[in-house]
């Protein structure tokens, strides 16, 4: 994976952006987190979280002008959360804030703070926590002298906040008006929190405004003197007095403390401060998902919320998260976090040099369906991330082949002579169209393929060629570029040999693969073609309603969506929508997720099944069969064109029957269409397999042909063991990369299979 591309992907995930309330707060107080804790009744944890951001919780709890409420997204659905009243309830009563802890000493660096107001003492609190030596100078005889004159601020709150400074080793010098010039010479840094009055006496030391207030850099709070910083009401008096408040004064002290700490460390004062202060947020929140709820009105308007009222009000918090992709994707939901963290984990998993790659299965569990990008406000596609990681890891031989081994062996069968076929219509040497049904429709409904081809030959002038094979989608999803390119080349050679006719696909994945990877090949969906030439005779159904499921691989092909719905209407079907074609979900087969992580794949298909009690209509063979595998009645649109009794209950054929269906279809077409004599395969091993054992074989991805080959080897070579207690034989045989073990008995020429399993380990035999 390209590191720069990874950063771009990460930047598109906005889930870790702050909620609007936090972003609007100059201190970036975690109002969402506080509300969540209060809603749960965990007031202690909520107070601790509040104190982590605010050095004076009692004072701020009473005096904050709460810019967070103006930004609160709940305002769009019942009124903003009254966060200020919640905070006030938290710091009321006998609340005692935890004391500040002095950080590890930084050496002989000394800082002077002039003015023991909110900004000055905030700077002192932040700097002492960083381990600096701090001395506070205050002209009044007590700390917070001006605040004590405010009627709406209880004296107990002031004393409780000042108690946080006990044992911090800050030296307070009250009743002291120091010489600022002398302080600049004596101390390593100086912070001035002088109040709003003009300071003409400092004109010889600092640059002042026309009305004799200190000129301050708005980002770093630096003055014209390299060691002096200034903030609080002095700064706002020089610019915009109406903007000054307790929270902005606290913010000034915090920002100045950061600059002072950087100065003492020799670091840049201005670097990486883009997120400083109140600002908009990129976090998307679907407010429409939340019903309006009015704000809680306190029983006592004067004293404000009780804790129980604060808890009820906090429960109104949405809380703000994006997670639009996680809400619609069982894969993303399964791993319990957000795409930005997934991207980091995936990148680290691929680039690790030594150690265990713990995220391989997660990377291979994505269906690559694209729904996440469809619902994401920033169009982040996790499928692109996962496929890129697969490609890099496969290329570097870091991805275990076991995840996709079976699917690639199934692809190899579809590319083999057992299934592939490419011919002009009998009696034609060229073709107006090429019908490409795809490997999965042939595996699921071979009769439909044969009957469709006959219908096309009868109704399309100029001849219709037929090609059986696989478009290579499994290789692409498995990041096996070598196999995918070979498959593309095989198709292209046959297509060119047939004269490059336009390709008509019955499979959505084939349509997508040709469009993405062979764009010069003219293509058309079978469904739009059938609209033009007409439906087969007898294509009808009893009037009924079906919920339509669109395949994810043609998510944006609106013409195909429309054609399928019109064909269904011609067959008497009323369709109801699930999420709409563009927001359709995967059936769990895409990206080969069902092979890498059956648990996640089942969650994906079960979630889709649970969206409606109606039988489903689809036009993808794998979607239909996956629904059937999980017990959902579903029909392929071809079941409407070629009606059969109870088609919705047709079971999933399973992996073994799928391969047998492909091979049988080729033999049938050669015999019935081209009049060739075709030998049926020799069935020298007749199996007896119970439904329970068959289900177990399906789960273990063991084909009946694998079982036959194992038994054929055992019977011909005599390499088998007899369990005298059970009377059963046990045999093993290695086919390509897999070793199969079968437990069986023989009676009346039939082989009863009792159990089978496989592994990739090769067993060596010694004499």
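Sequence proposed for the structure above (767 residues):
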């Amino acid at each position: 994976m390209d590191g720069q591309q990874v950063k771009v992907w990460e930047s598109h995930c906005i889930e870790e952006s702050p909620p609007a309330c936090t972003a609007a707060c100059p201190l970036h107080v975690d109002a969402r987190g506080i509300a969540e804790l209060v809603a749960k009744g965990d007031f202690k944890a909520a107070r601790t979280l509040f104190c982590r951001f605010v050095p004076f919780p009692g004072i701020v709890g009473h005096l904050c002008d709460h810019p967070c409420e103006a930004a609160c997204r709940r305002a769009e659905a019942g009124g903003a959360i009254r966060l200020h009243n919640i905070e006030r309830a938290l710091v009321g009563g006998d609340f005692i804030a935890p004391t500040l802890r002095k950080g590890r000493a930084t050496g002989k660096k000394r800082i002077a703070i002039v003015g023991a107001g909110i900004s000055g003492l905030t700077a002192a609190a932040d700097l002492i926590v960083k381990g600096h030596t701090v001395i506070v100078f205050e002209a009044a005889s007590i700390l917070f002298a001006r605040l004590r004159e405010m009627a709406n601020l209880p004296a107990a709150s002031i004393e409780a906040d000042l108690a946080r400074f006990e044992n911090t080793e800050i030296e307070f010098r009250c009743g002291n008006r120091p010489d600022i010039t002398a302080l600049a010479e004596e101390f390593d840094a100086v912070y001035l929190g002088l109040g709003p009055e003009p300071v003409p006496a400092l004109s010889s030391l600092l640059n002042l405004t026309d009305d004799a207030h200190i000129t301050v850099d708005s980002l770093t709070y630096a003055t014209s003197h390299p060691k002096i910083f200034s903030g609080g009401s002095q700064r706002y008096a020089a610019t915009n007095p109406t903007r000054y408040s307790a929270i902005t004064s606290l913010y000034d002290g915090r920002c100045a403390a950061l600059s002072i700490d950087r100065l003492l460390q020799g670091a840049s004062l201005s670097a990486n401060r883009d997120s400083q202060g109140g600002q908009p947020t990129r976090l998307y929140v679907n407010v429409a998902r939340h019903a309006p709820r009015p704000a809680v009105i306190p029983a006592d308007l004067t004293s404000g919320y009780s804790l129980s009222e604060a808890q009820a009000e906090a429960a109104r918090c949405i809380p703000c998260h994006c997670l639009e992709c996680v809400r619609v994707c069982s894969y993303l939901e399964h791993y319990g976090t957000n795409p930005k963290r997934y991207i980091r984990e995936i990148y680290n998993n691929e680039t690790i040099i030594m150690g265990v790659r713990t995220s391989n299965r997660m990377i291979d569990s994505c269906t690559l369906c694209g729904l996440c990008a469809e619902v994401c406000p920033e169009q982040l596609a996790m499928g692109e991330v996962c496929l890129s990681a697969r490609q890099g890891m496969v290329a570097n031989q870091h991805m275990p082949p076991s995840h996709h081994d079976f699917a690639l062996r199934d692809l190899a069968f579809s590319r083999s002579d057992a299934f592939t076929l490419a011919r002009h219509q009998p009696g034609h040497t060229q073709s107006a169209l090429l019908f490409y049904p795809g490997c999965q429709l042939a595996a699921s409904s071979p009769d439909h393929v044969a009957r469709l081809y006959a219908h096309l030959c009868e109704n399309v002038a100029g001849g219709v060629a037929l090609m059986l094979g696989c478009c290579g989608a499994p290789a692409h999803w498995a990041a096996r570029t070598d196999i995918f390119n070979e498959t593309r080349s095989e198709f292209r050679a046959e297509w060119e040999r047939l004269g490059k006719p336009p390709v008509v696909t019955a499979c959505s994945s084939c349509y997508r693969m040709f469009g993405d990877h062979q764009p010069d090949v003219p293509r058309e969906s079978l469904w739009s073609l059938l609209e033009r030439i007409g439906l087969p005779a007898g294509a009808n159904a009893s009037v009924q309603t079906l919920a339509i499921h669109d395949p994810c691989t043609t998510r944006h092909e609106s013409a195909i969506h429309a054609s399928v719905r019109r064909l269904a209407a011609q067959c008497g079907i009323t369709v109801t929508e699930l999420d709409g074609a563009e927001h359709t979900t995967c059936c769990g087969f895409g990206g080969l997720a069902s092979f890498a992580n059956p648990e996640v794949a089942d969650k994906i298909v079960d979630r889709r099944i649970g969206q409606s009690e109606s039988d489903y209509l689809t036009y993808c063979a794998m979607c239909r069969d996956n629904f059937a595998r999980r017990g959902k009645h579903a029909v392929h649109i071809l079941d409407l064109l070629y009606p059969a009794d109870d088609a919705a209950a047709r079971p999933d054929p399973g992996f073994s029957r799928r391969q047998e269906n492909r091979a049988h279809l080729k033999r049938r077409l050669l015999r019935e269409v081209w009049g060739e004599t075709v030998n049926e395969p020799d069935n020298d091993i007749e199996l007896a397999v119970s439904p329970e054992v068959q289900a177990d074989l399906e789960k273990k991805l063991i084909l009946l042909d694998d079982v036959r080959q194992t038994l054929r080897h055992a019977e011909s070579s005599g390499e088998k063991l007899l369990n005298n207690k059970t009377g059963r034989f046990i045999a093993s045989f290695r086919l390509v990369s897999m070793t199969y073990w079968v437990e069986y008995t023989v009676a009346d020429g039939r082989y009863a299979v009792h159990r089978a399993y496989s592994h990739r380990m090769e067993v060596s035999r010694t004499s």
